[in-house]
Amino acid sequence: MILWVSRLFIGDKMKKKKDKVIASINNREATFGVYCIAFASHPSNLFDIMEANELLFPHYQKSEVRIVGLAKGKEEAVTMVKDMLMEVYNKTGEFNVRTYFT
Question: pTM, whole model, 2 decimals?
């Protein structure tokens, strides 16, 4: 199941297509060049960066994926994760991303 945080981070290259991309992901349609930043599937990690088409696999229908960011391309996704982590740390003094974004 795909869930979205209320304060979704959107990359600069993704802003114009945000609504269309979110609808495509929710409708399980293929998207190209779109990367999702989600809470990590493993508790010792902070985030997962995955290509949006990975969410089409049956495994993701059975597990909960909470998306906190959308980017156009992997490079933008990595830059966004860095910016997100810096924001969390600057505002809280910690890296507890799950608490900060929920």
Answer: 0.90
